């Protein structure tokens, strides 16, 4: 006999079950939390092909890995058998591009593991490893790829320990990244930032051979002439339109509006990346692809420090990054908003939890194995002011600004507050230089002494003073010193090759073909900027590009800055400060008052950052402090000629950050 009490309690349970979905119907993965259990690891051998797999399952997600290669072959989530791409080899993988000294050695390597190990398995988490030690023919590195799946967590932490021994052959390492390709049937909506998200075309839409798209002037950009969805017709697709500076690259990914599921790459720290906080990297793009990059030359080019000499040892922990999945169980008709907001919240949680306390490798250092550095940055540009909202960071010892090209070490960056104070936390023990720059001032700061950080140390540097280059009072200036060409004239895109995302957008510069507008605006005569009359936001084109004169012919351009001097100190030394935001196969020649003279200053060929072709508004920063003898100037009207003589094609050129003429010091 069933007692009445039992029936009543069963009834209550039943009611509760009915209610549960309601009470958890707001954010998503809490629903999954109910079934949270200890993660399990299973090794299986497929009956069909004899291939082996490792499967980790925590009741929320179930992740399969090829064994011992360690490629992610499946992610089961929310009733979706696999959120990844149907092509087995294009799902979730690391890759690396390299070049040995022997020209036949190198290429793209998926760093497939040869050895599988379970590192930890507890009630709380599973950490597994797929490693490979160097064998001839492969890139000379030992690699240990690690994956962590935690209880009650809707995602996978991934990191890699990369090591090279000093006796190994020299090599160049171009790129290290993790890539995911998602199921194209499901994922159509991509989000990179609050104001950078949209419905995306498909990989098939980009197919030139099948006549779906037309090639454009740069290989990654295509015009979608026959897309599956006519809303994309004639739009340009280019993955470089979705790049992001490292400081802003915390979360990006894809949403399946049909399945109401999001897939995100969360990067809680910039310490393991290369090139500092404003280096730009790819994020997500048509595929559907989501990428996180640890080392690359993007927007810097061959200047990036990629070469490893004989005798040079290297070891670096890349990651962890967090692959996060979320779902929306509401019935709102736009799941995008909720999923994106939730992904951002999750990324904030990951940032707060950094450095993680659950990572097994002793090469990844916990909070108490790290130190911190504090101080106050002041700027001395004729008088002393707080270095507010400045970037300060610790990076491997080198010249001022060398962090821009550094790939080998860790970097730890922060921003100063309104009064110049800064705290750099969670720094790995080591010897660093303290670097920085201050928006509004030119040049690169480097603190005079090396900074030695030890575990648990709190180093207070007190006041540190940056004295930006300056030899005398300002006569005139063009632009603002912010390391970009953002403030200059950025033209409207062509109607038939635009990306509607960037219309009426703060990032107007992310459009294809803007460089071509120069030839239209200045068909016969180059840009002339008259100090005191011209306005840089209208009259200074964002890039000094070549002028197109025929189908395949281009000519160099010469820009003029015209200015008036009521008086010249002909025995004094004037200073021209030229800060460049980008350079690509360019040479800047400076002449004064005589267009035909030998240039009195020339940079030589500089830069391969490709920021013009890749719609960046900056690449690598360079400052030239140029001495201008007073005898070259005259009372009255003067002209500075800025000539860029290299003109093989459309993409050689420069972006200026800021230009200033200083009169001789009165001191
Ligand atoms: C699971 O995680 C969610 C969100 O982080 C949390 O609210 C919940 O309490 C967790 N549940 C368990 C059983 O730990
Ligand atoms: C800046 O940081 C310092 C040191 O932490 C603090 O005393 C000061 O109040 C902060 N100033 C502002 C404007 O936040
Ligand atoms: C451009 O954006 C601004 C600010 O978001 C908005 O107020 C304005 O209506 C937009 N204009 C057009 C033409 O879309
Ligand atoms: C320069 O042009 C911009 C944009 O049109 C305008 O907002 C600004 O006021 C102008 N500056 C001056 C000094 O006229």
From TrEMBL:
It is an enzyme of class 4 (lyase). Its EC number is 4.2.2.23. Keywords: Lyase, Secreted, Signal. CDD domains: RGL4_C (cd10317), RGL4_M (cd10316), RGL4_N (cd10320). Residues 1-25 form the signal peptide. One of its GO terms (biological process) is carbohydrate metabolic process. One of its GO terms (cellular component) is extracellular region. Pfam families: CBM-like (PF14683), fn3_3 (PF14686), Rhamnogal_lyase (PF06045). It is found in: Secreted. It catalyses: Endotype eliminative cleavage of L-alpha-rhamnopyranosyl-(1->4)-alpha-D-galactopyranosyluronic acid bonds of rhamnogalacturonan I domains in ramified hairy regions of pectin leaving L-rhamnopyranose at the reducing end and 4-deoxy-4,5-unsaturated D-galactopyranosyluronic acid at the non-reducing end. Residues 388-460, 474-661 form the Rhamnogalacturonan lyase domain. Its main location: secreted. GO terms for molecular function: carbohydrate binding; rhamnogalacturonan endolyase activity. Belongs to the polysaccharide lyase 4 family. This is rhamnogalacturonan endolyase. It comes from Arabidopsis thaliana x Arabidopsis arenosa.
